[in-house]
Design goal:
Elements lengths: L2 H12 L25 E4 L20 H19 L37 E2 L2 E2 L4 E3 L56 E6 L3 E6 L5 E6 L13 E7 L2 E7 L15 E10 L2 E9 L8 E9 L17 H21 L1
Parallel strand pairs: 7-8
Antiparallel strand pairs: 1-5, 1-12, 2-3, 4-12, 5-6, 6-7, 8-9, 9-10, 10-11, 11-12
Helix pairs in contact: 1-2
């Protein structure tokens, strides 16, 4: 079966309402203490974007034709990416010259693991992960500063301290490790380990591990990369509040006033409904909320090692280029 044919078959399944209704509480897997068991390896990959296509306005739920078109377009893109390249194309010509356009791509599709289906929640194919505001956009306040703050006296290319956190292998890119935990182009897997007092969530990318203390007080002065997280059970839903993000960790442009509230609700043997809300009055006009489905991975599939620095030439390359530019500028000034 071709990727395109597979996507067409999957898109028909995605429009059906079955399979995503909430499980009865008696059917949920539970620990000995009665709490729902969230443990296992989960994936949140999806073709549904975080923010909505503005042409869709306030349309959160897609119709079958829209789902089919989006999934078929993605499948066609994948088929084109895997098609043989023209061996006679001009080197470095780019898509404008009519070749396959791969000459300026850091990764080809073989290495990526983006979702190929629109996510369905409660039988509804969703146009965006964001469900509030109704337009599916992040409600940035006018004049909000969205750039990451650097330490005093440090510019982006002075040394490794000025480079982005993901480039330094300190944190996964694209807010994969969270909170909120969002899908990126690969490594969209998480392992959850749980006991009476803690819940640990390890993101596959960079092996970022977030330890959530249960029934404890927040310690925002810690300034952790992923913030300080505490949780409690609201019935069968785990509610987690996170504050105290590191000053260099600018989550969607938010300041150190950011509070993230997450809700984990196991709705079936194979699904966790993940809801998150970001609140920072200094950056956003209002709190904004998203919903995402975490799907269980097969028990025989393991999380891969993420060797971030292995073969990573970005950091020394950028810094070496900056030193070369400085040296050339100094020579020109002395001529």
């Amino acid at each position: 079966m071709t990727l395109r044919a597979a996507a067409i078959s999957l898109s028909l399944l995605a429009t059906l309402p079955a399979g995503l209704s909430h499980a009865q509480s008696d059917d949920l897997p539970r620990l000995a203490n009665g709490q729902p068991d969230l443990q296992g390896v989960w994936s949140n990959k999806t073709l549904t974007p975080l923010t909505r296509d503005r042409d869709l306005g306030e349309t959160l739920v897609l119709n079958p034709e829209q789902v089919r078109a989006m999934e078929q377009n993605h499948a066609s893109f994948i088929d084109a990416e895997f098609a043989p390249s023209d061996p006679n194309r001009e080197a470095g010509a780019g898509a404008q010259a009519g070749d396959d356009g791969d000459t300026d791509d850091g990764y080809n599709e073989f290495w990526k693991e983006v979702g190929d289906r629109i996510q369905v929640i409660n039988g509804e194919p969703r146009s965006s992960i964001i469900v509030d505001p109704p337009n599916g956009q992040i409600p940035f306040a006018e004049g909000a500063r969205l750039r990451r703050e650097l330490p005093p006296g440090v510019s982006a290319n002075d040394g490794p301290e000025g480079r982005p956190l993901a480039e330094r292998c300190l944190l996964s890119f694209g807010n994969h490790s969270g909170p909120p935990m969002l899908p990126v182009m690969y490594n969209n897997n998480y392992q959850i380990v749980q006991n009476d007092d803690y819940v640990m969530i390890m993101a596959e990318m960079n092996h970022d591990a977030r330890i959530i203390r249960l029934n404890d007080e927040l310690r925002p002065e810690m300034n952790k990369w992923m913030g300080d997280s505490v949780g409690h059970w609201d019935g069968d839903t785990l509610v987690v509040t996170t504050t105290g993000f590191h000053p260099q960790q600018r989550v969607f442009g938010a300041s150190q006033n950011l509070t993230v509230t997450e809700r984990f609700e196991r709705v079936s043997e194979t699904e966790i409904l993940y809801t998150f809300t970001l609140d920072d009055p200094s950056v956003y006009r209002q709190p904004w909320t998203g919903e995402l489905m975490f799907n269980a991975r097969p028990s025989d599939e393991k999380i891969f090692e993420y060797a971030c620095h292995e073969g990573n030439y970005a950091l020394p390359g950028v810094l070496a280029g900056a030193r070369r530019a400085e040296a050339e500028a100094a020579m020109s000034a002395n001529e």
